[in-house]
Structure formats: C-alpha cells, structure tokens
C-alpha cells in the first residue's frame, strides 16, 4: 500500500511538473506572439495556441533519465561532515595543476591522491579522432601553435604537454591521449568520469563518439556523465540513447563573452558588431529558458556552474527539480569547505592536494 501511494504521488508530481513547464512555455510563446501582432484575437484561437504549444512540447520532450541509473552514476549526496574530502572533489581536467591537464599521467596522479571523479574535455583531430584536449588551439599547453583540428591524431601524439606545466621538471614527454585511451585509464583505476563536449560544430561525430564509447565500455553507463555548454549536443545524444546521464555546463554571458570571473570587468567579447549584440540577447533569454524549460525537455540530471553563481537559493532551486549542482573551478581550500559544509555542493578542482584550512575560519 505504501509503495502504491508513493507511486501515485510520484505520478501526480510528474503531471504537475509537466503542466507547469508546458504552461510557462506556452505563456512565453503567447506573450511573444501578442507583442509581435499587437492585437487581441479570439478566445478560440488562444485555446488552439495552448493546445498546439502543449503538443509541441510533448513531442520535443525526451524521456526522463532512469532514476536508478542516475543514482548509480551520481551516488547519494555525501555526508557534509564526512572527513573524506575526495568524495566532494572532481579532478578538473584530471587535476591540471598537479600534472599536465587531460593527460594519462594526470589521471594516475589524481587516483593516487584519492580522486573518485575525473573530468576531461573532448576535441577532434583533423582526421576526426577524439582526443582529450580543452582548448581550440595548442598554444597554451604545448610548444606548438595552431588549431587542434588542423593536425592529425598521429601529429598530435608527438606533441609534449610537459614543458609549459608549472611542474615541468617532474614530467617528460607527456602525450595527448585519445578519448578512448583516457576513458580506459579512468575505468581501470575505478574512477567515475565527467565527459565535457566542446565539439558543438561536429554534432554527429560527437554523438557517434560517445555511443561508440558506451558500446566498447558497457560499464561507462553507470560510471560517467556527459556534460556540455551546448544543449543541442545533449539533446541529440539523449535522442539517440535516453539512458545516458547528462549534465549542462553553464555560466553567465557564455555566448557573448569568452571570459567571466564573477564581475563584468575584464570580459572578452567573442564577436563584434551585430553578431555580438545578438549573442548578448541570447544570453539574456538562455538562463531563464534553461532553468524553466530546457532542463526538463532534455532530461538534465546535474548542472555544472561557475562558482560565482552558486548560492543557497540557486542550489535549492535545482534540488527542487531533482537536479544536482556542481561548482567549477574551485581551488581555494576555504572555498571548497564552504561549498561542502554550507551548501552541500561538489566542486571541480584543478588540484587534489590536501590542504586543510584553519578550522576557526571555516566555522566562522
């Protein structure tokens, strides 16, 4: 009887959520239509618009992710008083301050330092081999300049990630791994994985890469989550396989500015002229659309967001939707403790170094 009551309550909750999201979606469309036409029409047409909007939303909505699979991937929220801080930290780019980022050496060191999770980025070589690499260009982390996708995979493997790393003296001939090599190493070391898709311009190739990984590594389904700043990639991926758990990465001003650190000064525009203006307009509507509609349509299980955005209200808003929040990139030990003890939020960090802040500072 209790099970039936719980099931009935869950169904009613899902129906209520469905009607709420549809209603908000319809309201946005309806008010926009009125603004454009600047006149009132008949009640019949209004009702037809409501029905059409609900049908469109219902047709576009992807199946909800399986709750048991999501729980297996993300696990239960760790106890805030748990002294094992590694459970609260994700090695961002495999902890790129401790070792050359997105390298197999970094994965091994992160595991040695107690990491349970590793995040890495997906790019493509010119011959469409998936590689673990963050930037569009090679300049920042190698001694070579140019676009990543201008070189073949064989050419990329000849580059060295060590010379520009702060701890370069400890490393020699660190290679750019393929995505397959990176995933295999993580699974061998019993690490869960966050796969960050940067390849918005190659949606078919990106989806095929992830599907092939899941085919080759069956355990990946319960040991990984796929994230991206580009919801079109996540939608296309879950359209192909609704069982894949996904998260959306986000921050303010993402479409119009390439940098943002919590304040408006220092932001670098991505474009110029009309294109920049349009990108700014997109940023204005994207966040509310993500929070009210897109997360539900796609079936988002987590949000990876810039640390400056994370507040108690923000975390509570997503938790009410059943969505986990993770903050990036948090390297300060005191900030890590705040995220964990006050907000109950996991963090993506560039270092797994165990630096414990003064207890008095944390408690205060």
Structural account:
The longest helix has about 35 residues, at about 1-35. α1 (about 1-35) packs across α2 and α7 packs across α8 (about 230-240). The termini are far apart. Residues about 360-364 have low confidence and may be disordered. This protein has an eight-stranded parallel beta barrel, surrounded by four helices. It is globular and about 75 Å long. It is built from twelve helices and nine strands. It is about 45% helix and about 10% strand. The chain has about 375 residues and is α/β, with parallel strands linked by helices.
Question: What's the layout of helices and strands?
Answer:
Elements (H helix, E strand, L loop, with lengths): L1 H36 L5 H18 L6 H8 L14 E3 L12 H9 L4 E8 L5 E3 L20 H4 L22 H10 L3 E6 L5 H14 L7 E5 L2 H10 L5 E5 L22 H26 L3 E5 L5 H9 L3 E5 L4 H11 L2 E4 L9 H5 L1
Parallel strand pairs: 1-2, 1-9, 2-4, 4-5, 5-6, 6-7, 7-8, 8-9
Antiparallel strand pairs: 2-3
Helix pairs in contact: 1-2, 7-8
Overview in brief:
This protein has 364 residues and is α/β, with parallel strands linked by helices. Helices cover 44% and strands 12% of the residues.
Number of helices: 12
Order of helices and strands: HHHEHEEHHEHEHEHEHEHEH
What's the main sheet like? 8 strands, parallel, barrel
How many whole angstroms does the radius of gyration measure? Answer: 22 Å
Percentage of helical residues? 40-55%
Low-confidence stretches: 358-364
Distance between the termini: 47 Å
Shape call: globular
Estimate the mean pLDDT confidence: 88
Strand content: 5-15%
Lateral strand order in the biggest sheet: 1-2-4-5-6-7-8-9
Give the helix/strand class: alpha/beta
Number of strands: 9
